[in-house]
Design brief:
By secondary structure, this protein is mainly alpha-helical. It contains 14 helices and no strands.
Length: 357
Amino acid sequence: MDTEKRLVSSIIQFLGEQLASDELTAEDKEGLDVTIQCLESVYKISSADVHLLPSRRLIDIFRDATINDPKHKESDEPISEEAKWKAGDLKNRGNELMKSDMFKEALDSYTNAIKLDPKNAVFYCNRAAAYSKLNQHNFAIEDCKRAIEIDPNYSKAYGRMGLAYSNLNNHYLARDSFKRALELDPTNESYAGNLRVAEDSIRDMERRNPLATFFANPAIANVAEQLLQDPNLQNFVGGLMSNASFGGVPPSGAPQAGSGGDPAPGGAGMPPSGAPGANPDASSGSSGSTDPNPSGNETPLGGGLDAILRVGQQLASQVEASNPELIEQLRQRFSGTMNPPDNNNSDQNSGGGNNPP
């Protein structure tokens, strides 16, 4: 526990130094102050426990630890031929260790090679293979990304990244990685086979549970993330959740909109003026708005359910604007789910459909 306390003390010291920064707002500094108090409370330490601090500041330790990363390394810093030769020898040793199933030792050998020559994409890609053998797939992905930073046309890095994503059951990103690998190396049968497996896995997931895999699609997740960063939408959803906590009925003392119990205009659970979803057609400039209460002068219908539908409409319109082909695919998929083909008329010669070839 002493090591953990020393680490937390270093973090608190770093956060305390940030409080003096002119680049942070008063609100940001207040958040840092709360974080410091929470850490001190959980780990039973305080800023007065200077004996826990290491001899070096945390920022200096971190800077030294990442100095060999490609994005931090000066691009024009020369690497001696001797260093390159030694790094290559370490890489070859790592390859031999991999053949002997000594994956941890191989990883260490590749790491030492990277320290000598941090601009060689092969070293990162080989270390990614070692990470994957050790079931550390997230680290493998990061090394593949580093290799691609150095050599954007390195097909093997994309292929190994696809395998790592597959092992994490992220078949969408695996598919994208294999596609790029195949674009760079069109005759590689391994990439083509892995791409088919990823696509089959996606089809199987979507056939079994299309709603569960909806947000697993990177295109949809990206749009959802952008929407959730909108402050108007955040306020709107906050009001919706506040209303839901009272079972759809305004809390005691809140204004009522008649005997039906619907929330008053602008109340909890309904979008504020100008919030995303308040008028699904407003952004497109369409005059055929489907908003039953554009002026906000009448009691909106549907309460919290109506608000939820508006969020869904806003999300759908954003996705359709950014990726219309995806929306068409979803329409076809859900149509097939709602209207399954007649088994009596199915093609008996289809070969199993989604089964791998």
